[in-house]
């Protein structure tokens, strides 16, 4: 009996395969029995994915003999089964002499080469197992009722498959951030490439993605086709999908592109600000079926892309040089803008706004020391605006400009000038950028710094005694007060001279000031306390800046009064006090003036101590300054009473001393008058004169 065995199926076609590809199979088997086998039937159940086109035989050999179609074998296709039947061209017996090319004698091997075609619409990732077997063979050639038909052999198979679809992802952002850094409000694009294996179809192809909280999706696009959809979820994430339907057949290269456009939002779903260092991780997913119905669902996951939020942070510092002055002085402000803290990106649309207070006037002289270019706008003074397009990460901007101190500025007044700085996270006009306006709780890109200029207090008062430092009772002398002003405005200015007891104000002699200086009050003093106090209530003094003298000079006269306290050697002075808003009080006192007083002693002698009636007696009178006397005596009056028993007898003689007069109109009182007696008339050199009297009867 014949016995077929060693059935083997193989292929020369490697995996993966694609739609339209020809797949080549080879089937071999041998007769290991004891007689010839005839009319062998081989069947192959063609798998789904290869049934669109009829298979075909390439060659059949048996024991080295090449079989011819029709004469030696037939091939038939009845989807899904492909059948090859060996035909006995010689039906004669005995079998040992049979000449059929398709006979399989003992020890011979049959080799069948045939091919199938992968369907053009084969699914991506689809697996196809092709199984072939010998289904029967017989002991006699042709159809013979006496023959034995033997059952077939166990099958053998080969599996082919198409490749799976592939998804890859990339992210791109604007050029003003580097690497994977993204700024608040910056547009961000995820680009997803879907690569379908060549000449395959992905059935019900679906792309899905979940964009993290803190990113706001603005658009989803698919090319060349697809139905994009996106919706924000309660947790702040955004679900993105594109339904491609049955997509294919694929071509070599990228077959579909999904573009997800978004921007980095100010806040997340909890209304917390998205801050520096927050990372966004993302992967894309695809799923598809490998058949139009039924089949297996396949998935693929893209590579992960990531982005990290970066934020610019700036610090502004302002300084005044010098930090003091008065009206008309030029001050320059130095502004420095530097990186602050953990800043890790460029700052854009940086704007410095400096509103000059009333006391400051823009004087230009802008000097750029370092840093990026900027523009200056002074069209809306007193507001000065400095604008930058970009301040690069780590850059330092430093510049100076001049201002002039203007009226009204008063002593010790502090003039504060504040510069405010704002910037944005992205360049240009971007409604999604973070800024420094404070419109939202996250718009904190701002800083400010102030510089103070203290108005000098140059006010001073200096009082000088113009007299010689001594005076007698009733004598007048002058003081001069020089009052130094600020350039600017001084309010509530009052000058008050409090004289020592024994001094009294007599007159204002002069008041000298530049004509540009104005006084809201009075330049004439108010005299109170019986001349002991002189008060100048100047009110507000405005002294314009300029080359004119910043002084007021006042000259006035005082006198020693005839009061008990004014005694010889008494030292008298006064205290001049200056008070004003923002400073003082200031005091000044001139040098002392000493009270001088004449002190006279009178001596009298007679030419005779005794006599008779009719005798003439000469009376000699002397007076002089005592050792306590410190001043000449003026308007000296000396009275002589001619007592009873004596008769005035004239003969008045000036022995020594200044000239004098004698008045006898009031006898018996005789009065002698001197205009002055200087201090050199001492006891050793007195004023002496004499007159005669006669002893009465």
- Kindly report how far apart the N and C termini lie: 223 Å
Tell me the strand percentage band. Answer: over 45%
* SS content category: mainly beta
Poorly predicted regions: none
Average pLDDT value?
95
> How many β-strand stretches?
56
- From the alpha carbons, calculate the radius of gyration and give it in angstroms: 65 Å
What is the 3D form? rod-shaped
Q: How many helices?
A: 0
Largest sheet: 7 strands, mixed
Q: How much helix, percentage-wise, in residues?
A: under 10%
For this structure, the quaternary state is single chain
Structure description:
With 697 residues, this protein is mostly beta strands. It has no helices and 56 strands. The strands form 12 sheets. Strands 25, 27, 30, 31, 32, 34 and 35 form a 7-stranded mixed beta sheet that branches. Strand 17 (227-232) and strand 18 form a beta hairpin. It is rod-shaped and about 230 Å long. The termini are far apart. The mean pLDDT is 95.
Describe what is shown at a glance.
The protein has 697 residues and is mainly beta.
